[in-house]
């Protein structure tokens, strides 16, 4: 059996054979990876959500224009939704552990994480917009937020999808040569 080849650290890294993995090992590894990723995302969303909840109780909140209050409400709802999506894999694990449903858990947790990451990016964008409306005059706030959101899209979605596509093309070329 020919082993798949994978790049280890950097593009110029030495290629090493991938270790064989059973279907059960793979689903266990994927579940553990999702739980680790969830821990990272949960921490960020919980800190941001806590900050957002406290904003309404600050003296400056009363001085916000109605448009900024609407942005605040949208931001809090997005933050709550992101929190729910990113913590949901923990609930899945609690309810379904031991039920021999790990494949379904991994697939569902993946979808929840992707949804949660979109909601988190939107929450961050709205939070930034609210802060910049207070700190920066005119349409500069919207321009800065648009730039940051573009950066999020590039880092969180475009880059990983591009890397996946590039890797698939490389593997296809290798299999054609073999």
From TrEMBL:
The chain crosses the membrane at residues 40-58, 70-92, 112-134, 140-163. Keywords: Membrane, Transmembrane, Transmembrane helix. InterPro entries: DUF6328. The keyword Transmembrane applies. It holds the Pfam family DUF6328. This is Sodium:proton antiporter. It comes from Streptomyces thermolilacinus SPC6. The lineage of its organism: Bacteria, Bacillati, Actinomycetota, Actinomycetes, Kitasatosporales.
């Amino acid at each position: 059996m020919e082993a798949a080849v994978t790049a280890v650290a950097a593009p110029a890294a030495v290629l090493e054979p991938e270790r064989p993995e059973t279907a059960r090992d793979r689903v266990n590894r994927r579940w553990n990876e999702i739980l680790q990723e969830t821990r990272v995302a949960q921490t960020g969303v919980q800190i941001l959500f806590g900050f957002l909840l406290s904003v309404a109780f600050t003296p400056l909140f009363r001085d916000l224009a109605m448009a900024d209050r609407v942005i605040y409400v949208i931001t809090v709802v997005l933050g709550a939704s992101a929190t729910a999506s990113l913590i949901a894999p923990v609930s899945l694990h609690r309810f379904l552990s031991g039920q021999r449903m790990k494949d379904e858990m991994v697939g569902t947790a993946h979808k929840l994480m992707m949804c949660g990451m979109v909601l988190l990016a939107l929450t961050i964008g709205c939070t930034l917009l609210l802060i910049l409306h207070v700190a920066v005059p005119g349409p500069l706030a919207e321009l800065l937020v648009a730039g940051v959101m573009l950066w999020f899209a590039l880092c969180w979605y475009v880059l990983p999808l591009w890397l996946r596509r590039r890797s698939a093309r490389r593997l296809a070329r290798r299999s054609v040569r073999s």
